[in-house]
Write a structure and sequence with these properties.
80% helix; mainly alpha; single chain; 0% strand; 5 helices; disordered N terminus
């Protein structure tokens, strides 16, 4: 039977840096996945608009398929780097919402309501809380003690 000390031993610097680097790539991949998802939705809206010729519709479908596949690729990579699937999902959702708002403004001149921005702010607050509660060092230390 092993006896564990009351205070866990600290990780060496290179392991701490590795955990932070892993978290960065997880967040980066999830942000890219959300942006590609918004691009896929925008290209589908452009392709299936009311007055679109056949060539433009075909191009929109091809762009939609490519951006959708990129979105799933980045989301899968984000899941593999992330500490939790919940973190990855909320990060992709937040990125998709902001990217959709930006593309809607640039392509269609859409402006969002204050209530919409309030909801996006609440999602951001929840995302910050999730990231703060699951720091890689704390999670790794808790697994090491078990």
């Amino acid at each position: 039977m092993a006896v564990y000390p009351d205070t866990p031993a600290g990780f060496p610097r290179h392991l701490q840096a590795g955990a932070m680097r892993r978290r960065f790539w997880g967040v980066f991949n999830c942000l890219c996945a959300g942006a590609f998802g918004a691009l896929a939705a925008a290209s589908a809206k452009l392709a299936f608009g009311s007055q679109v010729n056949v060539g433009f519709c075909t191009l929109g479908i091809i762009v939609m398929a490519m951006t959708n596949s990129l979105m799933w690729t980045f989301f899968s990579r984000g899941l593999s780097f992330s500490m939790s699937s919940a973190i990855a999902s909320v990060t992709v959702t937040f990125s998709n919402i902001l990217s959709s708002a930006f593309l809607g403004f640039v392509l269609y001149g859409e402006c969002q309501e204050v209530l919409w921005w309030g909801g996006a702010f609440l999602i951001l607050c929840g995302l910050i809380l999730i990231h703060r509660n699951l720091s890689p060092l704390k999670k790794a230390l808790s697994h090491k003690q078990q």
